[in-house]
Design goal:
The protein has 15 helices and 21 strands. The protein is of the alpha+beta class. The strands form six sheets. The protein has a seven-stranded mixed β-sheet, sandwiched between helices. The chain has a four-stranded antiparallel β-sheet with strand order 4-5-7-6, with helices on one face. A four-stranded antiparallel β-sheet has the order 14-18-13-17. Strand 15, helix 11 and strand 16 form a beta-alpha-beta unit.
Length: 530
Amino acid sequence: MRISRRGLLRSGAAGIAGTAFLPGLLRAQSNDDTLRLGVAANGPRTIDPNQTTQGADNWATEQMFEQLVRPPDGLFAATDEEYVPTLATSWETSDDGLTWVFQLREGVQFHKGYGEMTSEDVVHSFQRAMNDGVNTAVFTNIASIEATGPYEVTFNLKGPDPLFLGSTAFQNGASIVSKKAEEEKGDAFGTDSIGTGPYQLAEFDSSSGATLTRHEDYWGEAAKIGTIEVVYISDTTARTLALVSGELDIIEAVRAPGWIDQVKQRDSSLLVDMTNPGSFMTLHMNLTAAPFDNPLVRKAIATAIDSGQVANALAPMGRPSVTLSPPHYPTGWEAEELPEELRYEYDPDRARELLAEAGHPDGIEFTANISQREDYRSTMLIVQELMRSAGINMNLNVMDHSAYHGANREDQNTLALHAASYPPVPLDYMSRYLSSAAEVKADGTGGGNYSHYGVAIPGVDDKLLEMQLAKTFEEYVSIGRDIELQVQEDLPVLGVMTLGFTAVRSPRIDLGYEVDGGYARWRFHKATKS
């Protein structure tokens, strides 16, 4: 069965036209020294970069926190050479690649009078990321970190990671926080956090959003706009009309069929920024829950989903992806490169045969949770329709976006759709999704391995370790491509497509740089408002 894009366009755009704006959600139109951003969630969960699991929260942390290095604005760095000094001014690595020494920038001031950043703060920040963060798996290659001077930090690694800056140093969890503030505030640090970035937290409201103000003692060039308001509006219509009316300056786009065309029809002057590849849209099969513990059922599901159809329905943002990594990423595969038995070309009849072999001649039925956010819901509705023609009946339990992520973190899903942007550093997302160290836990303390791969069935921990120990980029890529093949065989995770992360802004806002790649957020330190 082929999905009708016209029908999807009709449903995806319906929320924009002919609906009155919901009153009481927004204050008056922002002034010239305030940038107001509308994000697609009900409310912030935390502003601690080490604990964020909801993408919307990262818009605030991106303005407030910095790492030792970062890629150029609006881009992903493909190699370590492309990263630019930030809180570190320079770095050296040993010949064997196991030791990295960073020289820190002197005179960097934390927000709200918490003093100068020193090596003690950097060591503390990484230790909390390694021990207590939501993505501890990406830091497992660090054997030790020590302050070897007031402005010098030394990392000792277990293996010579050829992409260390991207895989470890530039992570949200590796953001440098004030040790004094974090120890003083305790649990309250999540809503009153202290960093070094160009903006500091002025107000946190768990029901509506966060207000940031310019950090006047910032070490670099001061932010041009004085105040950033991150306004949480999950309602599609309210968020869209707030932009069109001028009450918001930028919004997270509605990543649903036809939305960009519709909003441009309302106001052709609006500017669209889109990353490439954007979010990895991946399906995680819970290997501890029947029938997903049966490999034939997993292969039937893969055979019942057409990545091309899903991506086409969400054009121009959607692009097909047939492995965990997108085709143009270092370890990604094009469909025609894969062994024929691992391509899982769309074939509902073959999917039914696989289900019969698995002991389900009448098909299967299950319930999966899904976020109400448009990109999640639209993608899963298309997947649902495709699978139905193969005798796979998925009932959807639609949840608030924040609650959905919370449920996933507590292992309460069967077929979990996850969207996240990653740099071309395969060990980063492979560690998050595939390593046993990142296995999701019922108490919410685990990581993003929602399938239980490596625990429920043998996984790729040994190969991930080999990637960490790789001495050259070529060796790293070769091992990573082998991992992709094993994942295609075992199918704990299925790459569905990539979906360009998109924001739409008023022509009054100039970001100060072009958005081409990068995470699903960008900095406003160079932005101006005319």
